[in-house]
Amino acid sequence: MSILVFVESAEGRVKKTSIEAVAYAAAMGGDVTAIALGNDVDSSELEKLGNYGASKVLHVDDERLNQGVIQAYSSIIAKAMEDSSAEVLVLANSSLGNPVSARVSVKVGASLVSNVTDLPDTSAGFKVKRSIYTGKAFANVELTKEKKILAIKKNAAEIKETGGTATVEKYSVDLGDSDFGAKITKTDKATGEVLLPEAEIVVSGGRGLKGPENWGMVEELAKELGAATGCSKPVSDMDWRPHHEHVGQTGVKVSPQLYIAVGISGAIQHLAGVNSSKYIVVINKDPEAPFFKAADYGIVGDAFEIVPKLTEALRAAK
Amino acid sequence: MKILVCITHVPDTTSRIAFTDGDTKFDTNGVQFIIGPYDDYALARAVELKEQLGGSITVLNVGGAETEPTIRKALAIGADDAIRVNAEPKDSFFVAEQIANAAKDGGYDLILMGRESIDFNGGMVHGMVGELLGLPSISPVMTLDIEGDTAKMAREIEGGKEYLEVKLPFVAGCQEPIAEWKIPNMRGIMSARTKPLNVVEPSGNGENTKLEKYELPPAKGDVKMIDAENVGELVSLLKNEAKVI
């Protein structure tokens, strides 16, 4: 089986979620080709995808693609699926991957499933498990078309290093004006931070922190853990923190190894964004906070005392 | 400005999720249905754009007769008329094809919907509709303004925002903070009763995926409480028991 994997990069590096997508494709078995777009990632970085199971990487080193142009990306990936006779396209769920895969699925007539949480079951047909109801349930679905697209959720596959190197080939597709119909005029992006959807550890703060000026201790704890920072909906609604940090039903859904919630009561809409975390720690002064029911470890007490102490204890334990 | 807003009819975010019929059907017992929260943002922005620029708003839902109260609510919020495609929404492609077929001769300047439904969370329908109609599709859109024949918007990306411009018509998947949700007033509720709600039969090739079975996640174990005076214990549990740091 021939599998194509769409990989995304940021700041010259292949994203960790895309490495997971390569590892997922490798674990499915078959011949894995990756495709990367834009000239802000170089060949030596792409060769490393061999270490996770890709034999070949198609590189479209067109400067116009350094930005995530949804239509142009869709045209290229659909053509690459055809050229590489790929039966399956694998990619990581993301703000770019999802709209791109939707268009590709129509172009190539593929069955498409997003939020895939496990490897496919091919014992009878081609079936995958996907998360639904914002992580509150799963659906097992069969992909009935000959071509298939899987947008995978974080942690759907374990990253295994094979020690291999991939060959990088230049690849290009003729693009028309309509591919660039939507013009990106500006990008505002945090640099050098651990990004929320990619993070293995997330430290989030809620209204219990009383104001944006008190986020220093949350950031310090996050820094000590190499974690991303998140927040609850009221906090982003009040502009204490930027919207892209809002974790919950209508914000970012995270699935880290460890989620630490500070001063968040745990409304059901917030839990919907964190319920696929492996371990949850809740720090809250209210012993009745509903979040404790969803937690693995809990501390009842004043966040302003506990958080700095926790940072100190982590530092000491190093 | 002619705007089409596609809405989903989904369980309230606080609903208990359960399944029946050998885990092949969602258990609607005691569940309250609402306009999808993301779709509600799209609708609210459509109402604001209509106030600003004039024009009309059509809402569209793919669903059985049981979704009509949800459609009437959208009419009460400010849509002028509605289309219900009389079919069970089978999968993203099925829904996208119904929307594209209903929209293709409608002359809409803008096709808005939520970034994803909150039942299946696919986040795919807007892209598929765009591709089927040969229009640009952009999602998730956080702000949207119209200047002449150009739409200007911000799209959320990991760790920030991207600003875009596109010529109308186009398809957008919307999310907060594009507009504040609108609560229907009495006049809206009264007038919604008589606004046209047209029922059309489905068309197209059907679905690309088949549901086998639903399942619920395993129950969570009990929380282990740690004394506030002893945060060191938490560190050692995270290190030695959970093995996550």
UniProtKB/TrEMBL annotation, chain A:
CC cofactor = FAD
- Domain called Electron transfer flavoprotein alpha/beta-subunit N-terminal: residue spans: 3-184
* Coiled-coil residue spans: none
- Show the InterPro entries listed in the entry: DHS-like_NAD/FAD-binding_dom, ETF_a/b_N, ETF_a/FixB, ETF_asu_C, Rossmann-like_a/b/a_fold
- Co-factor binding comment: Binds 1 FAD per dimer.
Q: Name one GO biological process term.
A: fatty acid beta-oxidation using acyl-CoA dehydrogenase
Residues that, per the record, bind FAD: 207, 263-270, 284
**Native source organism of the sequence:** Fulvivirga marina
Pfam families found in the cross-reference section: ETF (PF01012), ETF_alpha (PF00766)
Give UniProt keywords alphabetically.
Electron transport, FAD, Flavoprotein, Transport
- The name this protein goes by in its record: Electron transfer flavoprotein subunit alpha/FixB family protein
Automatic annotation (TrEMBL), chain B:
Pfam families, alphabetically? ETF
Q: Name one GO cellular component term.
A: cytosol
InterPro entries associated with the record: ETF_a/b_N, ETF_b, ETF_beta_N, Rossmann-like_a/b/a_fold
Q: Which GO terms describe its molecular function?
A: electron transfer activity
List, for all copies, the residue spans of the domain called Electron transfer flavoprotein alpha/beta-subunit N-terminal.
23-209
Q: Where is the signal peptide?
A: none
Q: Which UniProt keywords apply?
A: Electron transport, Transport
What is this protein's name?
Electron transfer flavoprotein subunit beta
Q: Which organism is it from?
A: Fulvivirga marina
